[in-house]
Structures are given as C-alpha cells and as structure tokens.
Amino acid sequence: xxxxxxxxxxxxxxxxxxxxxxxxxxxxxxxxxxxxxxxxxxxxxxxxxxxxxxxxxxxxxxxxxxxxxxxxxxxxxxxxxxxxxxxxxxxxxxxxxxxxxxxxxxxxxxxxxxxxxxxxxxxxxxxxxxxxxxxxxxxxxxxxxxxxxxxxxxxxxxxxxxxxxxxxxxxxxxxxxxxxxxxxxxxxxxxx
Length: 192
Fold this sequence. Notes:
Blueprint: H1 2-21, H2 38-74, H3 79-97, H4 112-126, H5 139-160, H6 166-186, H7 188-191
Helix pairs in contact: 2-3, 2-5, 3-6, 5-6
C-alpha cells in the first residue's frame, strides 16, 4: 500500500514540476485572448459604421422632434396641425434607433484603435445636449422654420442612404420621404 501512495505522490510531483516548467501551462496564468480573424475585424468595422450612422440619424430626428415641441409650446393654437406630424416624427425617431446605436467589440481584448474609438464616442455622448432652438414668435414664421428643419433632416437621411446597409437604407428613404411630405404640409399644403 505504501508503494501506491508513493507512486501517486511521485506522479503528482512530477506532473506538477513539468507543468510549472512549461510556459503557459500554469493554472495561475490567465488564458491569452485569441486574436480576431479578418472576417471578425471587418464585421466589427461594419457594425461600428452602422451604429454611427444610426446615431447620426436618431440625433437628427430627435432635434426635429425638439423643434416640434418648441413650436407647440410657443403656439398651442397650432396643435391640431402639428400634433399628427410630431407623432410621426416621434415614431420615425424610435424606428431609426431600433437597431442600436452602440457596438460591443467582438474581440476578447480590444486593440488600441478600438479602445480609442470607444473612448472618443463615450466622451462625445457624455457632452450635454444643446438646448433646442426656440420657436419664432410669429406662428407663420414658426411653421416656416419647422418646414426648413424637416427639409434639412430629410436631406440628411437621403445623404445617409449611400453608406447605409440595405434594410436601414429602406427605412431612411421612407423617413426622408415622410419628411419631405411634412415640409410640404407645413408650407404649401396650408395654402390649398
């Protein structure tokens, strides 16, 4: 019986010594993160670009929504005309942000460039949002300003179509078309 105990002890001692002598085999060392492949790096780059595009689109729509809120606060008599359009802009804002505007890195240990870009976007989002532009005192001027803001947001969404993935491009095109219709309804549509 003592031989079996001695053999087990020797075997354990030898395997422990071998494990300690081999680099990277110690139980105390953490496993090294694997380096991502080219496809993973490209997928992460595409996801980051789409998240940045979504963030820009949502930001433009939120700014437009704030313009509607300012106009409604300044001119409550315009509520019957502006409320349906504002509801539409709120729905567009929600839809534009539904895919997410942030991306988590797919790599186990982010590269310095990924870490730097995460830091930049985090510090940019930490800045306080600019206060909304107040509405004009004259209701007609407020409508003109709102129409101009609709056209500007519509143009921004149209310009983003070039770099958008297909599904998001369809959404952007729809929102841009709705914005152009809103601009018409705020100006020329009132004359009819």
